[in-house]
Design brief:
alpha/beta; TIM Barrel; 285 residues; single chain
């Protein structure tokens, strides 16, 4: 493929006890100084990142969907076992006629389904400042397809309007079996109610002054919380909006280091993976 010679594995990083860890995107200039090997050509960055992490959240689709051929290229570049999550285009979630976006949803899902078995959760982000009508929002949820090309789909609701996010919202998500984002940030609603058979966490507190973005103690704490979620329970130190969900046998967990000191996020993800890999499944960490 040209450029720096790399001996990359054919397989991806497997989930650890059902836990996947990753970052947002894979193209960011500062990562060429502290994550990607010196001399690696940009077109090989996905190839490298998808063999060091177990998931990546695609943020670019928020601004506009790609062609199916592009998704297919990403699918073929990432190794077996790797998973992409992706934000749905904002033209859908910012529509003034939310209940009538069925055709747009179908178009987006139909295209991104070209990711095949590399396709993970789809994230539907509703920004703060956008008025959401609860009836229209409920109708919108009915439009989200359960499968595409014979593969089941997972959907995540990232609602950033603090006035909309309440116990009724949690109950609505649970009725539809949709996950809600746990966001570790002061900028957005932060609640850890489990509403689906998987958990989706976005950690947004990495610090530029720390090589791994987070102190070791905080990473160990996140590893413990991820283990708790994966074991079917809920961490007892995170805020809830409603009574806890009933315990489950197991859950898949997605943890992404996003935003904040973005240059440190790959190191944070790698550090969390090392902690998870070094600890037995039922460790308290």
């Amino acid at each position: 493929m040209g450029g720096l010679s790399l001996d990359l594995p054919d397989e991806g990083v497997p989930p650890i006890a059902g836990i996947r860890v990753g970052i947002g995107g894979w193209t960011y200039a500062p990562w060429r100084d502290n994550f990607y090997p010196k001399g690696l050509v940009q077109r090989r960055e996905l190839e490298f990142a998808s063999r060091r992490l177990s998931a990546i959240e695609i943020n670019g689709t928020w601004y506009g969907a790609q062609k199916p051929a592009t998704y297919a290229t990403w699918r073929d570049t990432a190794p077996p076992g790797f998973v992409f999550s992706a934000k749905a285009p904002k033209r859908i979630t910012q529509s003034r006629a939310l209940a009538k976006t069925g055709a747009q949803i179908e178009d987006f899902v139909g295209g991104i389904s070209a990711l095949g078995d590399r396709l993970g959760p789809l994230v539907w982000q509703f920004d703060a400042g956008t008025r959401i009508d609860r009836d229209a929002f409920t109708a919108f949820l009915e439009l989200l397809p359960e499968s595409a090309n014979g593969r089941p789909l997972r959907h995540v609701l990232d609602v950033r309007d603090r006035d909309f996010v309440d116990a009724d919202f949690v109950a609505l998500a649970r009725r539809h079996g949709l996950a809600t984002v746990y966001t570790d940030s002061d900028e957005h609603p932060s609640f850890a109610d489990v509403t689906a058979d998987f958990v989706y966490a976005r950690l947004m507190r990495s610090r530029a002054g720390l090589a791994a973005g987070y102190p070791p103690g905080e990473l160990r704490a996140w590893a413990a919380r991820a283990r708790t979620w994966a074991n079917g329970a809920a961490p007892d130190d995170l805020p809830l909006l409603a009574p806890p969900a009933a315990p489950a046998a197991r859950r898949d967990v997605f943890v992404f280091f996003i935003s904040a000191a973005k240059e440190r996020n790959p190191a944070a993800a790698l550090a969390l993976l090392r902690i998870l890999d070094a600890s037995p499944p039922n460790a308290l960490l």
